[in-house]
Amino acid sequence: MAKKRGNNEGSIYKRSNGTWRGQISLQGKRLTFTGKTKREVQAWIHKTLDEIDNGLNFESTKTTLTVFMKEWLVSIEPALRYNTIQQYEQVTHQYILPVLGNYPIRDIKPEQIQRLYNDMVNKGYGLRTVQIVHSVIHRALVHGVRLGLLSRNPDDATTPPKPSRKEMRFLDENQVQQLMIVAKAQNDHFFTLYYLAIATGMRQGELLGLCWADIDWEKCELTICRQLTKKKGGGFELTTPKTKAGIRQISLGSNALEILQEHREAQQLDRQAAGVHWQDQGLVFTSSIGTPIDRSNMRWFFKALLKDAGLPDIRFHDLRHTAASLMLNNGIPLMIVSRRLGHAQPSITLDVYGHLIPGKQQEAASLMDDLLTPIQFKFDN
To answer: Theoretical Cys-Cys bridge with 144: which of 84, 150, 212, 239, CB 3.0 to 4.6 Å?
Structure first.
C-alpha cells in the first residue's frame, strides 16, 4: 500500500540565472533537480515521489550506469552463451559506458540514448553494430525497471536504425553438384560435412557437434540435440541448441546414409593411425586425432575448394541458405523446410526465404478461374 505523502516532501524555487530547481527529502538526504521551466521540475517531483512510494531509496538514485551495467552483466552471465556475453561486454565497454556511464541510471533520458545511436551512425559504424548496442541497452534497462531503479525504460522512446538485410548468397543445383564432384575428386576431408550441410540445412555448430549416437540407421534420421560452441577460457564444449525448435529430427536419404557410413569407416582408419593419441568424443566430424574440428581450418579448406571448383566465394553458413533454396524451389512444403532448419515458426522461414519461393500467381489465377466458372458457362462459350 502506497505511503501517504506529506505537504513538505517536495519544494521548488527559481534560481538567479532563470532556471528552476526542485528538492525532495529522501531518507534524511536531499535529492535535487534543475530544469529550464517550473513545469519540468514539477514533473520531476511528481515522478520521483511516485518512485519513492514504490520503493526508491537514496542509494539507488546515485547508481550510475557504469555500476549498474557491470552488475547486470555479472547477473546474466550464467544464462548466456560465452560468445553472447563476450559481445555484450565488448559493446558495453567500447560504446555505451564511455558516453553514458557516468550518469545515474534514473537520470538517463531518451534523447541521450538517441544521440548515442545517431553519433555512431554519423561516425560510420555499421548499422548492425548500432543495433547490437541498442539491444544491450534496452535489455539492461528492462532489468532496471524490474528492480525498481526505473519507472520506465527510456530506450522505449528512441528510434534506433534498422540494419539493411545482407544480400543472401547460395549455390544453384548445378553449382552444388560441381562442389560435390570436385570435393570427391580431391578426396576432401570435409566432403561428408559439406554434403550433410546442404542435404539437411544444419547450422555449422550443429554439424560439428553431431555425434554418431545421434544417427538412427534404421529410422534413416538423425537427431539434433547439441552443438559445438566456444568455451570460456578457450577450447570448445557441447551445449544444447538455443531454442526448443533447435532440438529436432531430420530424415536422411539413402545416399546420405551411405556417405555417412563411408565417412565412419574412414574415421576408423584415422583412429587406428592415431593409436593412443586418439581422443574419442563420439563426434561424427573430427580432426585426425578425434578432437573437434578447428573452424578456421575448415573455412580455409572450404574457400580453397570453392576456388578450385570455380564457384562464387560464399560463406560456409551460405550452405544452409543453399539447402533452403533447393528445398523451396523444388516444391518442399514450407512447414517441412522450417522444421528441417530448426526455426521456431514457419513465419521465420517465410520472412527469411520467402522471396525464394517460386511464383505461383498464374497457376493460382487459372485455378480460381476453374473454381468460379460453372460448367454451362464453358459450354456456352
So the answer is: 150
